[in-house]
């Protein structure tokens, strides 16, 4: 980016996210990436995904962080990197007020991400939806089944290379 | 012509055929099955409610397919729902009618190309008698569709199959454009 962008003073939200990231980085070090200081939704990536649940618990319970609220958990397909991922939007609702997004990635085939359904209840159904649409597994999830598609549906519809099945129980599916 | 249009006054005798009386009775108490699938259902509920008051035609929703004559498929039929729709249809006693309401249930509507989960037209799984276009159709259109169903019932008699009656109904179709034009002309004149 050019110099002009750097001269713009950072918003309070980015500064707050920076402070949050520093607390997490102090504790977990290499397990988290640098903070992406974009003005829309600052985020960092969890590089050691087996630590994701510990990080989540730390973010929820640490008195400096107190991320009490998971606003959303979305799935993402990265076909060029041969990866799948999730994006979690977290907020300290009614306490400290700051927001941050966390990304976790896993392999495209047979990828496993630790479940945070026990940390934030919201994650339960959101992880089921991500599993339904993208096919990554969430280890330690209490009830990992498809949530929207029928249970015997073939494939994961939101993957970029998804091909719809010809028939479902003898009914023609495509146009 | 309905029977009541004949205006029965005192001491008069009415002569009609059994077919006519039966059809009149059936079309004057069309009971649709009370279920909706998407936004069309909202419009269907509005049609049932007091502003449009379907009950004046003897149409009011029943809670069970076993008590219904008519299935209004109001909304997007997903692949998951398709099997249930078949089952509900099979639970309805004959003679039964199906009205497909809105683009989604007519042909898949906006999900035609990329909706992997949507059935591209409910006529792929059950026979449809009347299609009501619109996204969603206004209550007036739904009432129009229901009147088509009534017309269809009125046509049925011994010796005329449903398919033949539907064909006749199709031949009777009029160009709505002309009607609108005529109505506009009348409005300007008055």
Query: If you compute it from the alpha carbons, what radius of gyration of chain B comes out, rounded to the nearest whole angstrom?
Result: 18 Å
Rg of chain A to the nearest angstrom? 18 Å
Average pLDDT score of chain A:
90
Tell me the total number of β-strands of chain B: 3
| Distinct helical segment count of chain A | 4
* Major β-sheet profile of chain A: 4 strands, mixed
Query: Helix share of residues of chain B?
Result: 40-55%
The major sheet of chain B is characterized as: 3 strands, parallel
Describe the structure.
The complex is a heterodimer of chains A (175) and B (190). With 175 residues, chain A is α/β, with parallel strands linked by helices. Chain A contains four helices and eight strands; from the N terminus they run H-H-E-H-E-E-E-E-H-E-E-E. Chain A has one domain (9-172): Beta Polymerase, domain 2, CATH 3.30.460. Chain A has a four-stranded mixed sheet with strand order 1-4-3-2. Chain A has a two-stranded parallel ribbon with strand order 5-6. A two-stranded antiparallel ribbon of chain A has the order 7-8. With 190 residues, chain B is mainly alpha-helical. The longest helix of chain B has 17 residues, at 139-155. Chain B has a domain at 32-156: Rossmann fold (3-Layer(aba) Sandwich), CATH 3.40.50. Helices cover 42% and strands 7% of the residues of chain B. In chain B, strands 1-2-3 form a three-stranded parallel sheet. The mean pLDDT of chain B is 88. At the A-B interface, strand 8 of A face helix 3 of B.
Strands, helices and their partners?
The complex is a heterodimer of chains A (175) and B (190).
Chain A: H1 3-7, H2 12-28, E1 43-46, H3 52-61, E2 69-78, E3 83-91, E4 99-107, E5 112-114, H4 122-134, E6 137-139, E7 167-168, E8 171-172
Parallel strand pairs in A: 1-4, 5-6
Antiparallel strand pairs in A: 2-3, 3-4, 7-8
Chain B: H1 18-27, H2 39-48, E1 70-74, H3 79-91, E2 97-101, H4 102-107, E3 130-132, H5 139-155, H6 162-171, H7 176-189
Parallel strand pairs in B: 1-2, 2-3
């Amino acid at each position: 980016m050019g110099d002009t962008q750097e001269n713009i003073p950072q918003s309070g939200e980015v500064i707050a996210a920076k402070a949050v990231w520093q607390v997490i980085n102090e504790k977990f070090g290499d397990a988290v990436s640098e903070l992406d200081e974009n003005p829309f939704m600052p985020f960092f990536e969890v590089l050691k995904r087996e630590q994701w649940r510990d990080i989540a618990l730390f973010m929820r319970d640490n008195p400096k962080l107190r991320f009490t609220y998971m606003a959303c958990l979305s799935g993402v397909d990265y076909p060029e990197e041969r990866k799948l991922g999730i994006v979690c939007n977290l907020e300290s609702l009614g306490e400290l007020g700051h927001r941050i997004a966390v990304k976790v990635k896993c392999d495209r085939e047979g990828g496993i991400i630790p479940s945070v359904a026990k940390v934030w209840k919201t994650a339960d159904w959101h992880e089921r939806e991500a599993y339904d649409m993208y096919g990554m597994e969430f280890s330690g999830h209490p009830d990992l089944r498809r949530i929207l598609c029928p249970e015997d549906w073939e494939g994961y519809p939101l993957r970029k290379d998804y091909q719809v099945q010809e028939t479902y129980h003898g009914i023609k599916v495509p146009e | 012509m309905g029977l009541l249009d004949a205006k029965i006054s005192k001491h008069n005798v009415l002569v009609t055929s059994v077919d006519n009386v039966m059809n009149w009775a059936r079309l004057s108490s069309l009971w649709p099955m009370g279920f909706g699938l998407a936004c069309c259902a909202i419009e269907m509920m509005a049609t049932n409610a007091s502003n449009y008051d379907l009950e004046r035609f003897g149409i009011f929703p029943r809670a069970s397919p076993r008590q219904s004559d008519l299935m209004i498929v109001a909304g997007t039929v997903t692949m998951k729902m398709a099997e249930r729709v078949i089952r509900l249809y099979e639970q309805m006693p004959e003679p039964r009618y199906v009205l497909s309401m809105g683009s989604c249930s007519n042909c898949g509507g906006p999900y035609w190309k990329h909706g992997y989960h949507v059935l591209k037209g409910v006529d792929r799984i059950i026979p449809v008698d009347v299609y009501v276009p619109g996204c969603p159709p206004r209550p007036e259109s739904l009432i129009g569709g229901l009147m088509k169903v009534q017309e269809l019932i009125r046509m049925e008699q011994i010796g005329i199959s449903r398919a033949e009656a539907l064909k006749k109904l199709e031949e009777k179709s009029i160009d709505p454009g002309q009607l609108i034009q005529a109505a506009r002309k009348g409005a300007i004149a008055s």
